[in-house]
Specification:
By secondary structure, this protein is mostly beta strands. The protein is about 5% helix and about 50% strand. The longest helix is centred in the N-terminal third of the chain and has 7 residues, at about 80-90.
Length: about 260
């Protein structure tokens, strides 16, 4: 019988990625589907302690032991969903509600030629959007200015441009408007510089046997650049630094094949 050679297993990895954040007590809270992640890598480095014999004139190594292992990597995700944006910004995602309550007498200092965001406050710096029935009056509220002559409008973004050469001069004016009643998602950055939780990869490989990965305790650290405006056509991608840690009652990395009926 001829020698039986090993069958090579070639792998082109694909799959779906899930992150399960820890709460304040380091308990899992439920997996978040990260969406399309075109790149997840793991890198392992070790540190060794060497021993050299001093029994002869030639110093020779007679022992070497691995004393440290670091498991790091990266997660690259181009699914720019609000929940992923909140993860990358180490912030929060919340649902805001905008009521259709008419606003009158919103007093603002203006300068001709400049633009102003309606509803912008310290608590709501982005202001209101999708507005109607916009009015611009003088500081006393007695004179009403004319749209297209004294100011221009973008109702969708809730922005007002004061026209140079119009009747509005530098000083205070009153804005009036009615926002549309709607709910929307809002993301804001936070103070945490890293995220902890569990990472799962459910494989659906282009070639090679599917093996599912589970890292029960990881730290994700947002890194790299995020394009807010770009000239090209590449989609925006977010990058996280990854560190796989060993939990108290488990191992740092698990990789299982799929059971099949025999």
């Amino acid at each position: 019988m001829p020698i039986q050679h090993v069958k090579n297993e070639y792998l082109i990895p694909r799959g779906r990625v899930y992150f399960d954040p820890f709460d304040a007590n380091e308990q899992l809270t439920g997996e978040i589907a990260l969406g399309n992640c075109p790149g997840i890598t793991l890198s392992i480095s070790t540190e060794k302690s060497d021993h050299f014999s001093s029994e002869t004139g030639l110093r020779q190594k007679d022992g070497s032991w691995v004393i440290q292992v670091d498991r790091t990597g990266t997660v690259n995700c181009d699914n720019f969903s609000p929940s992923n944006a909140a993860l990358w910004l180490s912030g929060t995602l919340e649902k805001k509600t905008q009521a259709a309550t008419p606003v009158t007498g919103e007093l603002r200092n203006v300068i001709p030629g400049r633009q102003y965001q309606l509803g912008a406050t310290a608590a709501n710096p982005l202001g209101v959007r999708n507005v109607s029935v916009v009015t611009v009056k003088d500081e006393a509220g007695t004179a009403t200015y004319i749209a297209g002559t004294d100011y221009n409008l973008d109702l969708e973004t809730g922005r007002v441009q004061i026209i140079e050469g119009g009747a509005i001069v530098a000083g205070k004016v009153q804005f009036g408007y009615t926002p549309v009643a709607a709910s929307f998602e809002s993301v804001k950055s936070g103070g945490k510089s890293e995220l902890q939780g569990a990472l799962r990869v459910v494989s659906d490989n282009a070639t090679g046997g599917n093996r599912d990965w589970y890292l029960p305790k990881v730290t994700l650290t947002p890194s790299g650049d995020l394009a807010l405006i770009a000239e090209g056509t590449d989609v925006v991608a977010m990058e996280f630094g990854l560190e796989a840690l060993k939990p108290a009652n488990g191992e740092a990395i698990y990789c299982d094949g799929r059971p099949v009926v025999v």
